[in-house]
Amino acid sequence: MYLVPVGQGNDVAGHTCPKSHCRSTESIAMALFEDCPGHWWLHESVSAADLGNALNEQQAVITDLDTHRVGGERRFSAVLQRHPGVVHWWYFGLSGEEVGSRLLEHGAVPVSLVSYRENRSVRFAVVMQSRPAVHWWYFGLSADDLGRKLDEHQAMAVDITACDIGGQLRFAAILVPRGQAGFWWYYGLTEAEIGARVDHDGGRLRCIRAYDTAQGTRYVIGIVAPVERAWWWYHGQSGDQIRARAWTDGAFPSTVTTRHDGAAARHACILLAQPWATIDPGTHGVVRDMLARRHRNGWHGFYLRRIGGPVMQSFNDSVVFDPASAIKALVHAHAMRAVQSGTRIGGQAVSLATVVPIPAGVGPLPNPAICPFDEINGPADTLPLQLDLAMESMMQRSRNASTEAIRQFFGATDVAATAAALGMADTGHDGATGCSRNRATLVDFGRLYEACSQGFLDATHWDRFRRHAMGEPLVEVVDACRRIAAVRGLPAGFAERFRGAMRGVFKEGRGTDSVEKKSVAGYIALPFCVDGRIALREYVYGVFIDGADLAGIDDSFNFHVAVARMLEGEITAAVDSFAQGACG
Fold this sequence. Notes:
Layout: H1 31-34, E1 40-46, H2 48-58, E2 61-70, E3 73-81, E4 88-94, H3 96-106, E5 109-118, E6 121-129, E7 136-141, H4 143-153, E8 155-165, E9 168-177, E10 182-189, H5 191-201, E11 204-213, E12 216-225, E13 231-237, H6 239-249, E14 251-261, E15 264-273, H7 281-292, E16 299-306, E17 311-315, H8 328-341, E18 344-345, E19 348-349, E20 355-356, E21 385-386, H9 387-395, H10 400-410, H11 412-421, H12 442-456, H13 459-468, H14 475-488, H15 494-501, E22 503-512, E23 516-530, E24 533-548, H16 559-580
Antiparallel strand pairs: 1-3, 2-3, 4-6, 5-6, 7-9, 8-9, 10-12, 11-12, 13-15, 14-15, 16-17, 16-24, 18-19, 20-21, 22-23, 23-24
Helix pairs in contact: 8-10, 8-11, 8-13, 9-10, 10-11, 14-15, 14-16
């Protein structure tokens, strides 16, 4: 890992920019190639058909593309991002002239370009987008030719690719205006030499591409300065290692390139820090540090948003993680909505008194060999159960058997349809809790709890939803209120009256398979004194740790401490509204 790359290397021929002319900001045009709205995916060594399917499934565009051969078959590695409204195209097997024709045909900008040998010809894989940007692109250039083009346009390269045909090295590149930024580029580097080049020039890697030579894999790189955001680069990585490093650092891969280590594909990548939303950077740093100290390996995330207002804190809020039992809130929301709507199953309208049976195909309980019936069921949890009791068993006592019984009673497909209707695009209840990994994001959980509080459930069923679950106001929030109220000189009983006016609901999750994970997501409403009346201000929140080593999570740490810390500014404002208001 290189935060400030160090190392020793040899001078390598390449174009440089004198440092005396390279000390300002990066070109605005770079934003076209380095922004990330939060959702990203990495696919490595996939077929063209599989990559196309992923684009459709994830409703994404390719922001970086690389290609190589595996066993004679052309494979692709790609970074995908969700950029709503951006029109894009991708091609492979094109000549340079054909790339140019496609760009003209679409009126597009190339955003990623890689050359490769096909028999004795140079072919290109290219990604292009319909976005306005000043740019130039070239192919078939010598090193000297490319250097002259960079000088001529006062440009920097956002992608450079090289191909060695019979000892003749030729380059293709996408260029944008450099502005006042500094830019250097080099070729013929080994992995060991890249860090020394970056260290020498005092910048960061902007692009990196591997290419084959008679001496082995070599790299062409571009370096930009000054460094205006946190970044990292790694080499010799698997796809899973890149994902884990990105989630750990709160980053996304901007470029991935591939070499072969025997039969295995290994990747070098550039990671750029995500710009996380926060209204209080100090609190953001405290919460990140608080969580980082509570797990060994793995990654974490947190999220706080005011309903009807902005995101107040976020970190890895769009990263898909295994929520364990926290996903039971989705089953609960679906079931409660079915009760509210009088959904008919087996010719009968569903009610809280409807009996939920043991799922078909499962033997008599207890049967520890069958998952999810791998827990001790007390008298209150033994199936069959009335739906009212089954939901309480699922949410308050977090029974996996009750959860799967409810999910199968209503139908896994219908539960998934509810997730889609709530806008939970990255959530999947793919298997029984306690038996398999499921997936969600903190943003998706926020949508679930917001929808339930804002009309997906009517007032009666929203109240029942909270009472089935962990609906008590957070003790940690009340403790913060008590501390702040004492400083403001409010009466001793203020915190308890504050507690009585709060509303809340949450669901926690905890699980272990090959890794450990823990999460919580929920809703909370704080009372404020507004014009002499008490009004509730509502929030959704979540915290998770995933991918930690076995026994690598500090279970003595209560995630709601982090939630209360994120909310502290709002708790203070709420207390002050009473200290200064006329609500009695």
